[in-house]
Amino acid sequence: MGLCPRCGAQLSFGAIFCGSCGARADGHEMQDTRSDPRSTHSIFTSTEYTLQKRILAILTTFDIKDASGNIVARGKKEVVPVGPSYFVETPEGVRVGELKGAVALIPNRPYLEIRDAHGEPLAVMVMRVAKKPGAGFFSVGVTTWVIATPSGEELTKITWKKGGHDWTIETPDGTTIAEVHWKWREVPRDTYQVKILNSTAIDPYFVLATVFGNPADRSNLA
Ligand SMILES: [Zn+2]
């Protein structure tokens, strides 16, 4: 069991990121592929989206629509032995990104990689578990969900509510910048509504990605 190269906290077994400060546990400051992951030239420029899951025989897709009901993009699932991926494409079939899920939820390891059109990671969704200061080895940790850069810098927090049926995306200091509502009680059941409250604070692509990384809807991925 090692210590974090940045803050010295004890690392949990197999951790890629420190649960306390979020730094990469191997000390490698990975080169982020973009200087500022918050300002992108992505196709997601609306402030409201609806995502609708369709399961057609062996193919699962997500239609991503803007507030006017126009399809902006589709997520198409592909399952490979290392875990499920959604390839995000325009309606014309041009790839704009990839959401790469992990096989299992492991603290301080990426649960979902948010990649660009070329498969380069832009950010990761991670469940961070840090021990409370002074707490013993077997104490319950403090759990925080974050979207971070590949080197571990926290971009936003994710707060799951009502068992994952609603959630908010917040800045590291706690200002809500997006809200997601899963219409799980309604028909069609697999519809998500996404509202971006502050589009300068985050690329909406990262907010849409949280739908694919909702641990309460594992069936999306597994
Ligand atoms: Zn640390």
Structure report:
The chain is mainly beta and about 220 residues long. The protein has a single domain, classed as Porin, CATH 2.40.160. Helices cover about 5% and strands about 40% of the residues. It is built from 1 helix and 12 strands. It has one helix at about 205-210, and strands at about 50-55, 60-65, 70-80, 85-90, 95-100, 110-115, 120-130, 140-150, 155-160, 165-170, 175-180, 190-195. It has a 12-stranded antiparallel beta barrel. The protein binds zinc ion. Zinc ion binds near residues 4, 7, 9, 20 and 23. Zinc ion binds near residues 6 and 9.
Short descriptors:
222 residues; mainly beta; Porin; 12-stranded antiparallel beta barrel; 1 helix; 12 strands; 41% strand; globular; binds zinc ion
**Helix content bin:** under 10%
| Helix and strand run | EEEEEEEEEEEEH
Number of strands: 12
Q: What is the tally of helical segments?
A: 1
Contiguous uncertain segments of 5+ residues: none
The number of domains: 1
Lateral arrangement of strands in the main beta sheet: 1-2-3-4-5-6-7-8-9-10-11-12
What is the structural class?
mainly beta
Any idea of the CATH class?
Answer: Mainly Beta
Estimate the global geometry from the Cα principal axes. Answer: globular
CATH topology: Porin
Bound molecules: zinc ion
Rounded to the nearest angstrom, the radius of gyration is 17 Å
Based on the structure given, which CATH architecture is correct? Beta Barrel
What is the averaged pLDDT score?
A: 85
The biggest beta sheet is recorded as: 12 strands, antiparallel, barrel
